[in-house]
């Protein structure tokens, strides 16, 4: 069976050091990561699967490594757990990507640079997203402490504590580090292990894979390029899959007839499963998987299946081309200067909303809006359980801004 894996989201303002930290935590950029890059998986959401190991003999503080032998004493190291870092882009226009990643996170590391006032716009917005999506296992990293004197680090720590007051991160530990200079990374790993546990595997439930990427096989260097079929990449929210399993993908394929459009599920077979850079005989929840399928690569190329859900036939959630949402809206638009706050007014009939459900992004036109409930007609259907959380954004000025969440009603 493949190793249990925990998905940890890296969130925070642009340039605060998320990518550098993933690199530091991974010890070195492992082959796995370069393999991901070769396969093109890290372009939307960057994934880096790393197995943390510890040396059984080196004295405290704990000697962590990703290597199979301890660099200090040469002793064989013990596997601790595999962590999949989901490195979301900090840039404001990529907020939707961050939210689609949030749906699969078991916890998050909020990276805040100590050399800038806290909070910066995306720090605020990302924390708000974690708050309303309900991710509770959070570690705050105060990065770049090498750039500021100790007194400033303490002052900045108080800014952080003030900023997270009343949010889901109120009691999150704050770990001062330098990702670039490798300072305190071992302490961070300890705290991370404590605060973000590996989730209990839900293997007895039907396997549902949220598709984050899909591509054809013609990527040079890919470990799966020998498979004669299209490839889908994503993460299992529950259950397990095996080579040879039948697969249904929903909503599937858009079929246009003379005066109507409808979507038909796609059926195929799993040829091969890759977890990280390894070929495996079983796919389980957590971490990024790539499934080689019997699909024609023209169906999977260029992320054409991103946002869809795959699983055993007849086990998938329903496909919705409209749904009713129970709303929980924020009071103010986040990520905008505090000097000119924008109140979030009621949702109105006919307004377009950007909706993120799992890894899917769609636009819903509001067909009816009442207090705390909105009905929407979707431009592109989504496959999702009733009760799923939907992140809602509204067009404000030139971009989509997060305004709240909704829950799909029966
Ligand atoms: N001095 C110092 N520089 C750092 C540290 N961590 C990151 N940097 C630098 O800060 C810059 C931004 O780092 P990234 O890791 O790319 O930041 P990011 O948050 O991933 O940025 P986006 O993905 O664009 O949101 C780079 O030039 C890093 O070398 C640190 O601890 N100390």
Automatic annotation (TrEMBL):
Residues recorded as binding Mg(2+) 2, renumbered to this chain, are 15, 40
Check the record and name the InterPro entries matching this protein: eIF2G (IPR050543), eIF2g_C (IPR015256), eIF2g_dom_2 (IPR044127), eIF2g_GTP-bd (IPR044128), P-loop_NTPase (IPR027417), Small_GTP-bd (IPR005225), T_Tr_GTP-bd_dom (IPR000795), TIF2_gsu (IPR022424)
What's any one GO cellular component for it?
A: cytosol
What EC class is this?
A: hydrolase
A Pfam family found in this protein is eIF2_C
Binding residues annotated for GTP, in chain numbering: 15-20, 143-146, 178-180
Binding sites annotated in the UniProt record for Zn(2+): 55, 58, 70, 73
Listed GO biological process terms: formation of translation preinitiation complex
Reactions catalysed: GTP + H2O = GDP + phosphate + H(+)
| Quaternary assembly | Heterotrimer composed of an alpha, a beta and a gamma chain.
* NCBIfam families on file: eif2g_arch, PRK04000.1, small_GTP
Instruction: Write out the similarity annotation.
Output: Belongs to the TRAFAC class translation factor GTPase superfamily. Classic translation factor GTPase family. EIF2G subfamily.
Q: What is this protein called?
A: Translation initiation factor 2 subunit gamma
From what organism does this protein derive?
Methanococcoides methylutens
């Amino acid at each position: 069976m493949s190793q249990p894996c925990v998905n940890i989201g890296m969130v925070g303002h642009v340039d605060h050091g998320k990518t550098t930290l993933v690199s530091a935590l991974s010890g070195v950029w492992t082959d796995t990561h370069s393999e991901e890059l070769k396969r093109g998986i890290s372009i939307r959401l960057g994934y880096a699967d790393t197995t943390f190991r510890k040396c059984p003999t080196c004295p405290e503080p704990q000697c962590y490594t990703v290597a199979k032998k301890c660099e200090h004493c040469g002793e064989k190291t013990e596997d601790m757990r595999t962590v999949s870092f989901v490195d979301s882009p900090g840039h404001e226009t990529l907020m939707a990507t961050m939210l689609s990643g949030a749906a699969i996170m078991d916890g998050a590391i909020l990276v805040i640079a100590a050399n800038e006032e806290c909070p910066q716009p995306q720090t605020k917005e990302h924390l708000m997203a974690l708050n309303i999506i309900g991710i509770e296992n959070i570690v705050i990293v105060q990065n770049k402490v090498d750039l500021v004197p100790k007194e400033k680090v303490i002052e900045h720590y108080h800014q952080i504590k003030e900023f997270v007051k009343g949010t889901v991160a109120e009691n999150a530990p704050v770990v001062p580090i330098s990702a670039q200079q490798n300072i305190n990374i071992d302490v961070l790993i300890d705290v991370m292990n404590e605060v973000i546990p590996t989730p209990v595997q839900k293997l007895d439930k039907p396997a549902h894979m949220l598709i984050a990427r899909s591509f054809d096989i013609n990527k040079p260097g890919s470990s799966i390029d020998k498979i004669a079929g299209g490839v889908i990449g994503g993460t299992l929210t529950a259950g397990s899959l095996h080579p040879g399993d039948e697969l249904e993908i929903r909503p599937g394929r858009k079929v246009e007839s003379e005066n109507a459009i409808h979507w038909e599920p796609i059926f195929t077979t799993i040829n091969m499963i890759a977890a990280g850079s390894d070929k495996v005989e079983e796919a389980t929840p957590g971490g990024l998987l790539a499934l080689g399928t019997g699909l024609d690569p023209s169906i999977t190329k260029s992320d054409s299946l991103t946002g869809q859900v795959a699983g055993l036939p007849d086990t998938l959630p329903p496909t919705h081309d409209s749904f009713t949402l129970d709303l929980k809206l924020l009071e103010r638009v986040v990520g905008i200067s505090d000097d000119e706050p924008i109140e979030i007014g009621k949702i109105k009939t006919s307004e377009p909303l950007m909706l993120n459900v799992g890894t899917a992004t769609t636009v819903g036109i509001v067909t009816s809006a009442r207090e705390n409930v909105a009905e929407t007609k979707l431009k592109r259907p989504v496959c999702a359980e009733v009760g799923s959380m939907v992140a809602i954004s509204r067009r404000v000025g030139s971009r989509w801004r997060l305004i709240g969440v909704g829950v799909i009603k029966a």
